[in-house]
Structures are given as structure tokens and as C-alpha cells.
Amino acid sequence: MNKKTKILIIDDNMAEVILAQEFCRRDKIICDIDSVLSGNDALDYLGGVGRFEGISPPDIILLDLNMPDYDGKDLLVMIRKIDAAKDIPIIIYSGSESPKDFSETRALGAIHYLVKPISLQKMQDMVTYVPPFQINMADDGTYHLCRA
Q1: What phi and psi values does residue 103 have, to the nearest 5 degrees?
Q2: pLDDT (tens digit, 9 = 90+) per residue, 53-87?
Q3: Backbone angles phi, psi at 3, to 5 degrees
């Protein structure tokens, strides 16, 4: 059996995290979702520091652009400097539809930009930008986000 894909959601709004988790349940997308509510916790999680010591790194990161403790763009740069996280695909996850935000985050190393709220179609589109991942439909009607 394949290991479930782990997604780390970095978002200061717990309602957005719950919404993403509910979306995955509703649309039967099988994956593990971890979340942190601050940039500081994200850096500790990805660095395996403190209460996050021993946690395996995620396969994909969804990063909110507008965080209170760190600007998402600054946090993106900091994450790319962490050895354990430098190659993890990062998707910006934001309410902003600004072309400037899209181009700046891509230049900083994000591989894709999703505008909230998340939907099955947006998740399927996202996966096309995250090689080697794909969404497979199982016989029971569930969707599995997995490595290709």
C-alpha cells in the first residue's frame, strides 16, 4: 500500500485549515493534512525543532500569503533555506488574485498559486504543477493524492 501524501498547510486562520480538511473529506481525497498557524511554527515544523522534533517532512506545502507574523513571501524564502524543506513543492494558497503576488511568489520558488477557496478542480489543477504527484480515483470512489 502506498504511503499517504502529507500536506502541510501554513495558515493563521484555523477556519481555512478546517475548510481544506473538510474539502478533502467531502471530495474523498485521501491524504494526511498537518497544519501550523504561524510562520514561527512553520519554521520549527520544517526544521524539526522543539515539539516538532522527529516529525517527517511534508510532501507538499500550502502556504497562506498573508500571515500576521511573517509575510508569506518572506516565509517562502526562509523555508527554501531549510535543508529538509528546500525541495518540497510549495503552493501559495491565498485570497489575493493579484498578478503581482502570483509572479513574485513564482520568482521566489513557489511552483503554483491557488486562490481560496480550494475545490476539487483546483486541487486537480494544482497536481499538474507538482510532479511527480497525481490524483487517482480508487474503485470505492475515493481520490488518492499520491506520487506518480
Answers
A1: -70, -40
A2: 999 999 889 999 988 888 899 999 999 999 999 98
A3: -70, 140
Write down the pTM of the prediction: 0.80
Q: Cis (ω within 30 of 0) for the bond into 132?
A: yes
Q: What is the DSSP letter of 4?
A: P
Return the C-alpha cell found at 130: 507538482
Please state the rounded mean pLDDT for residues 100-125.
80
3 state DSSP class of 127: helix
Give me 9's grid cell. 498547510
Residues 6+ apart with CB under 8 A from 119: 23
Amino acid at 19: L
C-alpha 4/C-alpha 32 separation (Å) is: 6
**Residue type for position 111:** I
As given in the structure block, the three cell numbers for residue 97 are 488574485
